[in-house]
Amino acid sequence: MSRLTRRGNCWDNAVSENFFKILKSETGFNTVYESFETAEREMFEFIEIWYNRQRIHSLLGYMTPEEFGKSIIKQTA
After folding, report:
1. Fewest CB atoms less than 10 Å from the CB: which of 16, 30, 57, 70?
2. Is the separation of the CB atoms in 18 and 37 below 8 Å?
3. What residue stretches are annotated with the Integrase catalytic domain (predicted)?
């Protein structure tokens, strides 16, 4: 298995660890899915619908990623 971080830099994993913390808290850490397809669908919905489009992010000025992207496009037009 390959390493995701450089040796000795604890901040390299901060973004991914935060994402997985949110994933676990929002979907239920001990959730047992009836099938792989159900788990796959729910993870897709969580990531693509809620996390990427609806969840506000403090680093984006408390906008959703979708709103932030639109504001950048509007600024550059």
Report:
1. 30
2. no
3. 17-68
Write down the pTM of the prediction.
0.61
Tokens for 34, please give them: 């009836």
Phi then psi for 57, rounded to 5 degrees? -125, 130
Task: Show me where the domains of the chain are located.
Answer: 14-23+33-76
| Spatial distance between the Cα atoms of 53 and 17, rounded to a whole number of angstroms | 20
The dihedral of CA 31, 35, 38, 40: what is its sign?
Answer: positive
Q: Is 59 helix (H, G, I), strand (E, B) or coil?
A: helix
